[in-house]
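Human: If only I could read backbone structure tokens as easily as an amino acid sequence. Take your time, and here it is.
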Amino acid sequence: MLSGSKNIRFSDAQAAIEAFGFRLDRVSNHIYLHPDVKELINLQDVNGKVKPYQIKQFLEIVERYHLELEDEP
């Protein structure tokens, strides 16, 4: 993801977003919310891939809010 790849699988993007504490809110597009973040994450599944600009937005939010990976239960 950090390399700017344009071939990130949708399922991998979902797993990464959830690992940072975002939870799926609704599925119109896939909208994710985080309790400590004002912005939402919007993912679109395009033939099993996620749009590169959406990954870029996600990474910018992680950096801006200093989010860390959550511990697995």
Observations:
- The chain has one domain: 10-64.
- The mean pLDDT is 92.
- The helical segments are 10-19, 52-64.
- The beta strands are 23-26, 30-33, 41-43, 45-46, 49-50.
